[in-house]
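Materials and Methods. Structural model of MBL fold metallo-hydrolase. The 293-residue sequence of MBL fold metallo-hydrolase from Roseibium limicola was retrieved and submitted for structure prediction as follows.
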Amino acid sequence: MIKIGRYEIHRIEEVVVREHKSLFADWDEARVEPIKDWFVGDYYDTADDSFATSIHTWLVKGPDLTILIDTGSGNTKDRPLSPRFAGLDTPYLERLKAAGVAPEDVDYVLLTHLHIDHVGWNTVLSDGKWVPTFPNATYVMTRTDREAKDPLIGAKEKPAGAVLPFVDSVKPLLEQATVKLVEGDEQNFLPGIDFIKTPGHAVGQMAIRLRDEGEEALFIADVMHQPIQVYNPEWSSKFCEDGVLARETRKSILSYAAENGCLILPAHFGGTHCGYIEKTAEGYAYRPSDVMP
Ligand SMILES: [Zn+2]
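The predicted structure was written out as tokens:
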């Protein structure tokens, strides 16, 4: 657990998957050398050229509010196009419980974007029907992503398998839960919590900033998938919807994080899963947090 002011931040792990280096079309093995002391092992395995990709969500417990940032991949989902997220059976809710939170305790679910590995625990299967997992929560998502992923609006051309995460994990919320659509740049949406537009990886992606008692944390979602991107901000991943825009967003978040010294909490980093950005003569460096969230 990490504290930011009066808020507790807990990482709730779902699964850790291996991701081949082909994640980055611009991959250059030589770029590993300068950071290999800490990068190889905790983040990257040279035996099979793969990254550790953690799928986790962030639990933020404030004095009066319990907030979940993103909801992982979910259990028992039908994912014909993404076998690694298909039919999962993880003790995610038990892990949430171990952090002191039952599903009914969650006040807000803030969804940075609506990709497969960020929306899954929005719903669980009950009597053959997908129902909201967190019955008392207000679910927050950007209007842009909500429309872009809807097979009746922006995703008409997508194959049926590709829109399943929307169909089984977002649409049931629109029908059965309290949903708030946002623009993704709201200030003080909740006390101390702002949204920052971070388009590119997903067209409607937003980062979430938490500030309390002079401390600051920035949940950057998938602005970066792996810490090697701190050193190579021009590398967008094969999962980025708009790689050029993702690159611009990455550079601006790196600059902001270095200037403000805030703790950044990405959605998929391995190691200690969060850290700090430092400006260097060549660009930026990553300093992993000493403390595990
Ligand atoms: Zn992701």
